[in-house]
Inverse folding.
């Protein structure tokens, strides 16, 4: 992706960020914070992993 931008400054590179991905990311952080408070684990010890299927969007 960076090679594309470096090659031609006028060429627009499609973004991988979508409203759906922002919502999923935000929800994941809310859940991590909630689980860390409930379970007593530090939030840094919990990992965020989002699995999504583009065909299901």
């Amino acid at each position: 992706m960076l090679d594309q931008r470096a090659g031609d400054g006028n060429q627009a590179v499609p973004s991988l960020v979508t409203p759906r991905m922002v919502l999923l990311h935000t929800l994941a952080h809310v859940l991590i914070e909630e689980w860390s408070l409930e379970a007593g684990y530090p939030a840094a010890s919990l990992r965020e992993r989002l699995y999504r299927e583009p065909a299901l969007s």
